[in-house]
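Before relying on records like the one below, remember that each one covers exactly one chain. Contacts with other chains, cofactors or solvent are not represented anywhere in the record.
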Amino acid sequence: MRRSIFWSLSLFAAVGCGRADADADAVHVAAATVKGEAPAPARAREAEAARAELPTEVGIAACDEHVAGYKECAATLPAAEQAAHAAAIEAQRAAWVRASADPALAAALPGACAAATAAAKVALPECKTW
């Protein structure tokens, strides 16, 4: 149950921070992975290509720390869960990178990223990387 709540919050955060079409595709790929479904191959390739063009860091400390901590956490989870978490991390990072380019959205990112970290601490208490 806690993980379901975390996934909902993670996907909401990824979607809510200035989602462009590529972010929408990334969220759909992450959601399909979380559900155990195979994403549409073309959509997955398009989302991957769009993410490859983005910087690797958000450029906002709270967001970059969340992404790094979540990646470390995901690596410690059971193998069956790691792909779903990796997809969610990437969708969230891509959305935050795009949002950081818009001054109106960038101003809200420190709080959004801090909230994502707070939710992650509750949803994944076994992780000590936050």
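Residues 74 and 86 are 7 Å apart (CA to CA).
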